[in-house]
Design brief:
By secondary structure, chain A is mainly α. Chain A is built from twelve helices and no strands. Chain A has a domain of about 160 residues: MetI-like (MetI-like fold), CATH 1.10.3720.10. The chains are: A mainly alpha, B mainly alpha. Chains A and B meet through helix 1, helix 6, helix 7, helix 10 and helix 11 of A and helix 5, helix 6, helix 10 and helix 12 of B.
């Protein structure tokens, strides 16, 4: 067990370095002049060019540049943007909004997804089950930007039930529609996963034993099946909280929420290399940590799984 | 060479696309009195499944639309007249006109090509990589396995859309090929994991040991015994992946880092429409509908395939 966790940590470190190196390479090592990219369309005086070249170690080989960058990251320094703002400052300003959005989406996803999945699983092959099966495929099929616009148009404008954009500063009420849209796809996955896991467990021997002992349906499902069925769902949810933050790019763009997803998108379009690499690095860390936690949790929670 | 069980997979996978039920003799028992294979069993079940039939029909229509759009419309999607700008749907022009006054029905039909092509090309190459490397990793084990697993981890650590935005923006040129290449590069890791674990479970079976004892080479064992029996989960997942890729391409085009005008693509059409949603909702509705239906049928077909191929669910 301990050796598994140590090995898993080692993999985490490797993935972290390799993934950041890859992003760094994608942003900076691809042909083109990074300083011009930083400057955008504006002309740049030679003195500034020299300062920047030195500041970003652009006269050094690529791997050395990456080394400077990554040692900075480990010390909590993500560099500065073109107009000299700390990337960490941009992130700490933008991140809380994305986190809020992700948490609201997460709550919606858990409540609706799990209960729809349980209900469908108990009534396997009945009407509600088929409804859940088809509607979840339908929700997964509609790309999130189409869903977002449709929601804006129908729920926001035509019906006027919820505000179309989150507002500034964003309010809880304003977050509701974007959170529903962001949650929708994961919600469908959660419902399906809960359903299939429940259906599988309901067929298992210990459930038959519980039934033949004469336990009530309520107790068989509530105590014996439910908790076991939730193991895969919980692991999915833990990874998904990381994925929701990465997935917020589209939702934040559509609903005009100045969160981290929009920040990275704007930075890409503005060719702000440092900001892009900084934010993506943070997102990759969150995602990788979520994965790590899930794997370790799994090892602790489920003794049937052997790691050697 | 006489191993018949290795043949049906390819036939059965292709069959839903190319063959109508009449082509395959209905109710004829499997050849040479052998017990029905997993795939012929599955095919029998699939033909009777409404979700499979519906999704297969939609997919065929979309593929034909992508290959020969002129079958569906004779109007040139690039022939536009500003006089017609933003006109809503009417009896003659079912989908109305876009901002430039181009016939929206014709543009929607012609938009199928890029989506379907990217979906199929990306899935084909990503599964090719995944199946090759996955069977290698699963069969050989050891350092090959762990290095391939770590490589997959690295690509897996970066969310697809994020990677697409960064890489496509860096590449500069944004054609069907670069978009496909980026989606392939970040699309194979999940399938590699699937293939690897599937191979691992097949590798230890008795008939593989038997083949090895008979002196079969690694190549023969992999291609004749392991692949045909281990590829099922990848086939199911690949079907779903076509839908996921189409959706990802549309998202990237929508974010202006995928296909660029004057290319015709559903994602791009929605991107252009986004500022006009209130005055001309049809600009959003039709490409969105086509896009969703296409993705829907691939995912539905993957679902049906999984139900039919997983004996545990029978």
């Amino acid at each position: 067990m301990t050796s598994y966790i140590i090995r898993r940590l080692g993999q985490f470190v490797l993935v972290f370095f390799a993934a950041t190196l890859m992003i760094y390479a994608m942003v900076f090592a691809i042909p083109g002049d990074p300083i011009r990219a930083l400057a955008g369309d504006k002309p740049m005086p030679d003195s500034l060019r020299q300062t920047l070249t030195q500041q970003f170690h652009l006269d050094e080989p690529f791997l050395v540049q990456y080394w400077y960058y990554i040692t900075g990251v480990i010390q909590g320094d993500l560099g500065t943007s073109f107009n000299n703002r700390e990337v960490t400052e941009i992130i700490s300003e933008r991140f809380p909004r994305t986190l809020r959005l992700a948490i609201y989406a997460f709550i919606i996803e858990v409540i609706i997804g799990v209960s729809a999945g349980i209900w469908a699983g108990i009534r396997k092959d009945k009407f509600f089950d088929s409804l859940v099966k088809v509607s979840t495929v339908a929700v997964i099929s509609v790309p999130i930007f189409v869903l977002g616009f449709m929601a804006q148009l129908i729920i926001g404008v035509r019906l006027g039930w919820l505000p179309v954009t989150a507002g500034n500063p964003p309010s809880l009420y304003g977050y509701l529609l974007p959170a529903i849209v962001l949650a929708s796809v994961s919600l469908a996955y959660v419902a399906r996963l809960t359903r299939s896991s429940l259906v599988e467990n309901l067929r298992s021997d210990y459930v038959r034993t519980a039934k033949s002992k004469g336990l009530t349906q309520r107790r068989v499902i509530g105590v014996h099946t439910f908790r076991n069925s939730l193991i895969p769902v919980v692991t999915f949810l833990a990874i998904d909280l990381g994925a929701l933050m990465g997935g917020a790019i589209v939702t934040e763009t559509i609903f005009n929420i100045p969160g981290i997803g929009r920040a990275v998108y704007e930075a890409v379009l503005a060719q702000e290399g440092n900001v892009v690499v900084g934010i993506v690095t943070v997102l990759v860390i969150i995602y990788a940590v979520a994965n790590l936690v899930v794997d370790v949790m799994y090892a602790v929670l489920d003794p049937r799984i052997r790691y050697d | 060479m006489t191993d018949i069980t290795s043949k049906p997979p390819t036939e059965a996978v292709l069959a839903p696309d190319v063959a109508t039920p009449e082509v395959v003799p209905a109710g004829v028992p499997p050849k040479q009195g052998k017990p029905a294979s997993l795939w012929s069993d599955a095919w029998k079940e699939l033909r009777r499944k409404p979700t499979f039939v519906i999704s297969a029909v939609i997919i065929i229509v979309m593929v034909v639309m992508a290959a020969v759009p002129t079958l569906f419309t004779s109007v040139d999607p690039r022939e536009c007249s500003l006089l017609n700008a933003l006109q809503p749907p009417s009896a003659e022009h079912w989908f109305g006109f876009d901002l430039q006054g181009c016939d929206y029905y014709s543009r929607t039909i012609h938009g199928a090509r890029n989506s379907v092509a990217i979906g199929l090309v990306v899935t084909f190459f990503a599964s090719l990589i995944a199946v090759t490397l996955g069977s290698l990793a699963g069969y050989k084990g050891g350092w090959i396995d762990s290095s391939l697993a770590r490589l997959a981890d690295i690509f897996f650590a970066i969310p697809l859309i994020l990677a697409g935005i960064v890489l496509l923006n860096a590449l500069g040129s944004k054609s069907v090929w670069t978009v496909s290449a980026v989606l392939i590069v970040f699309g194979w890791p999940t399938m590699l994991r699937l293939m690897r674990s599937s191979v691992l479970s097949v590798r230890e079976l008795d008939y593989v040991d038997a083949a090895r004892a008979l002196g079969a080479s690694d190549w023969r064992i992999i291609t004749r015994h392991i692949l045909p029996n281990g590829i099922t989960p990848v086939v199911v997942y690949a079907t779903i992946t076509v839908g996921v890729v189409i959706s990802a391409e549309a998202t990237l085009s929508f974010l202006n880092v995928g296909l660029q005008l004057p290319a015709i693509s559903w994602g791009l059409m929605i991107s252009v429409a986004q500022n006009r949603i209130l005055e001309a909702p049809h600009l959003l509705f039709f490409p969105g509908l086509f896009l969703s239906i296409t993705v829907f049928s691939f995912i539905l077909m993957g679902d049906a395939l999984r139900d039919a191929l997983d004996p545990k669910l029978r």
